[in-house]
Amino acid sequence: MGRFPKKSQNSDDSSASGSNKIVELDKKKYRQAKYSNNYKVDKWVSKRKNALLHELKNEAHVSKKFIKSIASRDTRGNKNLDKIREKQENLQKERAAKKEEFILKAQEREEAIKKSKQRRFETFKKLSKRTKKGQPVMKDRIEMLLQKIQASAN
């Protein structure tokens, strides 16, 4: 089964028409699609991105239609239209401010994580030092204890 390429299903019809098409099975792509978690995750991410883009386009389209429909119904002039535009602009400004705030928080969080990883790495380096005989080096351990005591005293 795996050694020979697959033939098309309608072999009787294809021989009658004169075109014998052989469809090759790409095992590598098949196995990747079936078993690879990274492939499935990438596929999910791309679908999610497409869905979000579609939602954004749809939302923008709906808001434009909303403004146009209200503008066509307006009989008192441009006052209502101006109010609606101001509301839309305020909403967009609030959304932009929320996005910026979220980005800043994410950056601060990443910086804090990097600092803590660096600190843990340094303590690991100090605590993992050994003598020639395999005993832990006490000098670094005592220095760390001294630093902890000084930090708690302050």
Structure, described:
The chain has 154 residues and is mainly alpha-helical. 77% of the residues lie in helices and 3% in strands. It contains five helices and two strands. The protein has helices at residues 11-17, 27-35, 37-73, 79-128, 138-153; strands at residues 6-7, 22-23. A two-stranded antiparallel ribbon has the order 1-2. The longest helix has 50 residues, at 79-128. The radius of gyration is 33 Å and the shape is flat.
Tell me the total number of β-strands.
Answer: 2
Distance between the termini: 75 Å
Spatially, the strands of the biggest sheet line up as 1-2
Q: Structural class from helices and strands?
A: mainly alpha
- Rg measurement, Å: 33 Å
Spell out the helices and strands N to C: EHEHHHH
Give me the number of helical elements.
5
Uncertain regions spanning at least 5 consecutive residues: none
Report the biggest beta sheet as strand number plus sense, adding barrel if it closes. 2 strands, antiparallel
List the helices and strands and how they pair.
Blueprint: E1 6-7, H1 11-17, E2 22-23, H2 27-35, H3 37-73, H4 79-128, H5 138-153
Antiparallel strand pairs: 1-2
Helix pairs in contact: 3-4
Protein name: Thyroid transcription factor 1-associated protein 26
InterPro entries: Fyv7/TAP26
Organism: Cotesia glomerata (Lepidopteran parasitic wasp)
Short account of what is shown:
It comes from Cotesia glomerata. The chain is an all-alpha fold and 154 residues long.
